[in-house]
Q: What sequence folds into this?
């Protein structure tokens, strides 16, 4: 994948894993940071993405554990990386991770939240930028007229920009 990314002049590449319970946090981060070292070694930007499902019954506690482990892994990582994380339940939860020199930036994934909810959560976390696909494409369908499509995408972009 790194060779493909280099050949096609990509900026970086990501590793996405779904965190289903607390026992997965350390193994997922161990694997993702090992891959990040390889990606960084190829002069690409690793995007570490340990996603916590938005409907997980323990989402809040998993996010707190994830943050603690991310701090541990960032402290032992020599390169730069982007953290792509589910928008947290706790305001500014990941703010202090931005102080690590290894953290290029933190982006929030909408993870299935509506555009309105994703934007609300993003605005509560000014340390995060938007990395929304589902929230961006909400209400877009193949049978829309050009005018309808443009109005909806413009509205979604406006909401996301204002939340950022």
A:
């Amino acid at each position: 994948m790194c060779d493909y990314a280099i050949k096609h002049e990509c900026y970086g590449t990501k590793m996405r894993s779904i965190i289903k319970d607390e026992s997965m946090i350390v193994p997922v981060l161990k694997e993702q940071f090992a891959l990040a070292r390889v990606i960084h070694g190829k002069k690409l930007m690793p995007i570490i993405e340990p996603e916590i499902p938005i409907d997980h019954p323990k989402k809040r506690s998993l996010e707190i554990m994830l943050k603690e482990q991310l701090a541990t892994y960032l402290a032992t990582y020599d390169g730069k990386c982007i953290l792509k994380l589910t928008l947290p339940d706790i305001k500014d939860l990941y703010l202090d991770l931005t102080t690590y020199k290894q953290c290029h930036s933190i982006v929030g994934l909408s993870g299935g939240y509506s555009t309105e909810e994703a934007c609300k959560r993003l605005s509560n976390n000014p340390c995060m930028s938007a990395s929304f696909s589902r929230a961006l494409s909400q209400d877009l369908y193949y049978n829309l007229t050009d005018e309808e499509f443009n109005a909806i995408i413009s509205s979604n972009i406006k909401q996301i920009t204002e939340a950022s």
About this structure: The mean pLDDT is 92. The longest helix spans residues 146-163. The beta strands are 12-18, 45-51, 81-86, 103-109, 128-131.
